[in-house]
Amino acid sequence: MTAPLLTVESLSIEFVTRGGKVTAVDTIDFSVRKGETLGIVGESGSGKSVTSYALMRILDRAGRIGGGSIRFAGVDITGATERTMRELRGREISMIFQNPRAALNPIRSVGLQLEDVLIEHGLATRANGRDRAIAMLTAVRIQNPEQRYSAFPFELSGGMCQRIVIALALACRPQLLIADEPTTGLDVTTQKTVMDLIVELTAERNMATILITHDLGLASRYCDRIVVMEKGRIVEANTVEGLFANPSHPYTRKLLDATPRLDSSVASLLPADMRTAASTIDSPSTPSLARGTLLLAVQNLRKVFAEGSSTEHVAVKSLSFDLYAGESLGLVGESGCGKSTTSSMIMRLLDPSSGSIIFNGEELAATPALKFARHPMRSQLQMVFQDPTESLNPRWVVRRAIADPLLRLGEFSSKQARNARVEALADLVGLPQALLDRFPHQLSGGQKARVGIARALALDPKLIILDEPTAALDVSVQAIVLNLLVSLKQRLGISYLFISHDLNVVRLMCDRVMVMQHGEIVESGESQALLKHPKHPYTQALLDAIPVPPARSVPQARAI
Amino acid sequence: MHLHPKLKFVCLRLLQAVPVVFGILVVCFLLTRALPGDPAAYFAGAMADAESIEQMREKMGLNQPLPIQFLAYLNDLAHGDLGYSISTGQPVLTEIATRLPASLELTLLAMLLSVSIAVPLGILAATHPDSWIDHACRFIVTAGVSLPTFFTGLALSYLFYYLLGWAPAPMGRLDMMSLPPPAVTNFYVLDALIAGETETALAALGQLCLPVITLALFTLAPIARMTRAAMLQVLSGDFIRTARAAGLAPRKILYRYALRNAILPVVTTLGMVFSFALGANVLVEKVFAWPGIGSFAVEALVVSDYAAVQGFVLAMALLFITLNLVIDITYTLIDPRLGLES
Amino acid sequence: MLKEAHSAQLPGLFEPDLPEPPQRKSWLHHVGYVLTQNPVTVVAFSLFLLMVLTAVFGPYLVPYDPLATDSAVAMQPPSAAHWFGTDHLGRDVFSRVVVATRLDLGIAVSAVALALAAGIFLGAASGYFGGWTDRITGRLMDTIMAFPLFVLAMGIVAAAGNTIENIIYATAIVNLPFYTRMIRAEVNIRRDAGFVQAARLSGNGDWRILMCQIVPNTMPPVMVQLSLNMGWAILNAAGLSFIGLGVRPPTPEWGIMVAEGANFIVSGEWWLALFPGLALMLAVFTFNLMGDGLRDLADPRRRT
Prior knowledge:
The complex is a heterotrimer. Chain A is of the alpha/beta class. In chain A, 33% of the residues lie in helices and 24% in strands. In chain A, a hairpin with a 2-residue loop joins strand 4 (63-72) and strand 5. The relative contact order of chain A is 0.10. Chain B is globular. Chain B is mainly alpha-helical. The longest helix of chain B is centred in the middle third of the chain and has 38 residues, at 198-235. In chain B, helix 7 packs across helix 11 and helix 8 packs across helix 9. Chain B has helices at 5-33, 39-44, 50-60, 66-78, 92-127, 132-146, 149-163, 188-194, 198-235, 238-245, 250-287, 293-302, 306-334. Chain C contains ten helices and no strands. The longest helix of chain C is centred in the middle third of the chain and has 37 residues, at 93-129. Chain C is mostly helical. Chains in contact: A-B, A-C, B-C. The interface between A and C is large, with 73 and 38 residues.
């Protein structure tokens, strides 16, 4: 066996903060060989990104390596000078980042940015820089590279920008590539093309790759080995097969459980000891044929922005669907497909261009959105928003936030009665009452999500739209929130319209699913059937693009 | 229309200036009609009787409805008629035209000095955030903006003229000994250099020194503050990290990547800074007896020469809007994103 | 989406469920916290307090009548009897500087308060409702900003008449666009924020959402602007007096005192202009330093 290209031994990273020294990464060890792909998986705050910055020695001013060693190609680079590191960066080790558009200089053409790197490392001169840069653009499969050479990042799509970033990283033929959440924020279909490109190019060059991600599914599809990080420590390291077959650390098991797989149910997302009686219901794989009454009927709903002007944009073409009482209906699509516009229209926050929304037998589209605040149906239609942080007024304590709908639309004789209701709601969503007097910034993401749910429930609505309610949360928190939503639905008998980009999650939560593309529904049906036998090519492409971790070979029962 | 998108954007910007110029004219017109007391009585002179006041009212068109008066006002402006200055007996336009170069010379030189100090200061502070350098920079610029220009001017004169005797007397653009150089640009230093009169050029520069420093001190703060903030924001940006990870040299990252991005918001603040500079200019001119349009206006105020004051306000507004247009168009040309985005 | 924003390279957020933060503090506690965090803020707020006290009690405490002339003691340099010396009419400079605080501060505070109130209304309405409200307000503000602001203030006071009220109005008008534009921008970015949508779902009307939810959240950056503008308003008023507009002699006011003193500086009587000038400088400096502290006070996120 050859010696590893990169060896990290008992590496610690510290940050100096106002509150004192914080150890972000605590004595971790791992190594990567040539031609191998190592996955570093962890949730936010696990220290996985910080580790990658330390490898490149581009930590923030406040951060520093507290101990241990990083050896690259046999040389210890832990204490290497900035000059040495500068020669290594880009030339030997390079890195790609999440949020590709922001990762490029906004006012320099992408071709020139590529040239800068090539010239810096002596691989091109002013004379042939342009040709070299264009060759690199071709290598990352960019169409019309001559034209794209002079394009600015704002003129390119997110996926295209990520290709440029890959080109920058691979331009000088480094031996090690660190990819830090390279596809977070991109649509699943784009994610697949970007990841496939990385794999192909690194294999061609026999490079070592470190893939840093929060997504076990992604790691399992593209990595040879995986290390799992939690709170700055590596809790487990194994091959992909080994890890999935036999996870040894409880945190790994928790993470594995929480990642939706084809055989998951909502309850099985939680660690075994947390699966309560209330939530161990079957996943809605067997929808009750006896449907409730018709709750919401949407007919020919259409929304055109800037109608008649040169920037006219048809967001929603012509949408019709029904939603029955007690049902969960999923609406799935990638960014820009019109799903958020749809939810705003049904929520009566936005006026449709045409079409009708009949809720509980009453036409709602006739009342303008601006006047809907005083509509008797206002309390019946509520929503849980995508970003739990942004959806809470930073100046209000939790108690005030939950009480807001009660103050406006509730009928409470006294402050005490209202407070009692707020506290009951907190209990309902599992929010400790001690947190009611905190400001949103003092809560964790999961707690903020609970506040948002409590607020939506305050008025006993019949329908709640869940707009990507877990998109901003870690998977383990997502598991908890999804279970909470399922049990609330059972207890309160409400209906959900669940909007998401994640087919796997929608399958777990919903009886029926609609797939949306370019402002229209391309396919709909019972969720299990639709996911097993997709008919429309777009649905098939979506399903194909989702990296799903292998089924746990060890039976679930073992854990219980 | 097959204009280059940039050119189109520039044209659009020029068009956008039209309503603003209109607004300026309306405001200036209203100011002429809002004089304390009766404008007719005022313009008829102190000795006028009721009849001559009435004649003056007729002559000035004050008995017409306001819109008609406004049209007449526009007509006068179109013919370059800003009225006569009572204090000098000259047409206001002539006065302003002859005095404008003095003011411009002072303001532009001060801005040049201010930018060339403030931008490096801002970069220095941003590259050493929360260090003593940063705090020192902040202290200097905050102190600078807290100094009333008229007071700084006096203090500098006292120190460098009265106590040390390094600076010439704070009296105008040239001392008594020198004669103004032959007029070409009407900027004395330039003109003297063109004419090859080095001594005059130095004398003119000497006179400029203190007022320019006074004015520059005042405008330092907003530019330095903006440079620091913009640099800090850019330096924490993702693309700087990409550049570092690609191994680009720190100098290249700082200047070619960070500074070029940071300079854009700085250019936009320049508009605001010019507003302050032109305002402070009035005070500085008074302190240094500088024969620009500011001191002209102050002298006119003392003798209630309203036509002169209004002419001055209009001239300043038009000057300022021209400067702003130049800044905006420069900005458009530097920033590739503007004008190309749909 | 971005689970790990890079700006948050800093960890410390290990726990998905945060460690127990201290109980919510009272507002006074918060003031104390903000003050102890930043020594500059302590200095600024102390100076401000001193200035307010001087404005309120100064006139009752000064050793001499600020208007009383006495040719016997004219033009005396600073001494034990006259700390800041006396002017050409034998008036006590110290008394005049102290008494002037009330007028200068009063002008600045009233002008900025007027501008802020109007700015909140105009800015919030144009940022939230957009359309014609926005367009008309925008053009109005553009027109004001098209003048060098001090020059416009000169023009207004010259045209409207030489009174203290007119100085206040002129200063308020030239300050108005700053608030209007800033609040408009801040309101605009929050118009469709999650918490605003949630408030709509809770049955709140537009004005209620605007005034109870959006506007309070725009206050932290406005506070910084407020303190900068206070300083600038004082300079503006003093500058107008310096060129003979507004306050008239013999009223004690810093700008006029510097203007009067200016005539004597070339003959070496520096104290006439120096002390009112320093007072003016100190006042502006105080306001400029207060900005960050005020913002921290207005921002609940700083309460931890």
